[in-house]
Amino acid sequence: MKTRKWFALLLLALIGNEEAWASGSVPSAAPGPAEVPSLALRTSVPEPSYAKSSGQLALFNGVNALRRKLGVGLLMQDPALDTAAQAHAVYLSAHSVAQHDQSVGSLHFYATTPLLRARRAGVGDTQWVAEIVGAARGPDDSEIGAGCIDQWYHTVYHLQSLVTNQESMGIGFSDTGALGLNHCVVDFGTNTATQPGPTPNGVPYGGGQQIDAEIFVTVPADGDTDVRPGFNFAGESPNPAPDLPAPGRPLMIYANGALAEVLSVEAFKLVDGNGAELPARVLVSPAAKADGSNGMADEYLRNNAAFLVPLAPLADREAYTASFSGTRAGKPVSISWTFRTATPGASTFR
């Protein structure tokens, strides 16, 4: 059996707000307009043009496999975003870094920000552009692309970025660099019914593909098996729990936020098969905390997301039940779901 080895460098999942972005942090999304038309969720998209067995195809298929599983709408290939993302992947590999900015005059410089790179590549002035970046190594390009997706899936901020209301994507995948790593770049586009003034790296609350207001997306999903017990905290910067030496697999609940509606937490718990509640930390948006939510305010969370981070890895081969109660836009929400963890070496997207 082939052994995959994945390594995460500095990873940032930016979701809007120019001032915070300029300081190197992961800001909150821009508020939505008063009325928000949007696309119907896509359940199919045209076949992409990426080469068979390429890292680009693995990334494209991986993002859409996750979005199909969670019911948040598939993303179409955007050739202009492909150009921008590939230019950035080449830049990152040349400099052995993983970041969103480029320095003027540096080798392989294309443009400073994800938005400016996309505009140079040909996207329109109204399109919003967001980016996630990773680096991995493995036996072949397809495995490496899958490895980057797996890194992002087992995080907080990057997971959030994978499921938002964007509608297209472009893929960058570098050759193997000096550190033996291939860089993965996914640029997301949101162009339908967006407000003006795109930020350098962001997804707006309004427009794009919106889930129904009565739907709540959870990760892990109800009935999942082979769930990985740990959190890829080493691959996420900023780290949402820097004081925890080995946190468990984060749980996410995600709601419609087309008008920047706030998801507030009354209780968010995880219990094992014996009914024992696990010690955990709840992360909510600053807007939710201001609204009276329980949990710790995290400046990088969108208004419509909340996370539970166990203080230690989950047990292998254990059944868990998660429960959430709170409000979305002031209306009560109460849901619960179950999942089971894996034996060591589980597959991706769990």
Automatic annotation (TrEMBL):
Domain SCP: 61-188
Superkingdom of the source species: Bacteria
Presence of keyword Hydrolase: no
CDD domains in alphabetical order: CAP_bacterial
Keyword flag Transcription regulation: no
Signal peptide region: 1-22
Alphabetical keyword list: Plasmid, Signal
Protein name stated in the entry: SCP domain-containing protein
Lineage, top ranks: Bacteria, Pseudomonadati, Pseudomonadota, Betaproteobacteria, Burkholderiales
